[in-house]
Protein: Putative glutathione S-transferase
Amino acid sequence: MSDPVVIYGFTSMEGVFDISPFVHKLELYLVLGGVPYEKRVGDARKAPRGKLPYIEHDGQTIPDSQVSIEYLRQRGLVEHDDWLDPDQRAEAYALRSMLEVDLYFVLVYMRWKLPKGWAVYQHTMHKLLREMEVPGLLQNLVLRKARSNTLAHLSAQGTGRRAEAEIAQRMRDILTALDIFRAARQDDGPWWFGPKPSGFDTVVHAFFAGLYRPNVPLAVSPEEFRAWPALLEHMNHVDSTLMELGVDLAAPPDRR
Structure:
């Protein structure tokens, strides 16, 4: 019998398992697969690739959310994607890249650079530092350095050099495209590709719920999310499924 899976991530936030969509994706993947796991606050400096999440299982340390998912599939612990056909796999790969490569930096911009977003998000980061047992007197210093490094990386990547209006439009364009894809498949079933979940469902929920659920102001208004009804329906279906499994993401993080 294999050891329990241990996930090293960041910290939880309103409506999501973790502030990182990659950690959320991995946790949701395990929950939907009925795989028991333990969540621990990680330290990126000790992570195998210098970033979170990573997992430990049966004496092995596995980096990266997607590599971890492939490892879990190979070990036979989850089988979310085994039934997908080649066209579905291609669609999932292309759209996952759009979210994890493009929309991710939009999310970072909203939380770390947008003044009204940072004014709220910094409180979640202080919560993380407390969970990491960083001394109170050092937390502001650590957070200033973390924000400076994040903004420098965001600028080097290119997203940080754009105006707020450009970032807002990029978010609209990505979510509109995703909503069109989802609407075209709604007759197939409540999950993205049919009657049961796939790994891509966890990616969509991680990013869409990660933008919509937390109380972090964005460059678009909350009312604009009504323009993506297929994505809202998908998110609500995932949330309802989690409720049936005993997981209430709407509850305060410390009461789940």
Notes: Helices lie at 21-32, 65-74, 86-113, 115-131, 136-157, 164-185, 199-212, 229-244. The chain is about 55% helix and 5% strand. Residues 5-74 form a domain with the Glutaredoxin fold (CATH 3.40.30.10). The two ends are 28 Å apart (CA to CA).
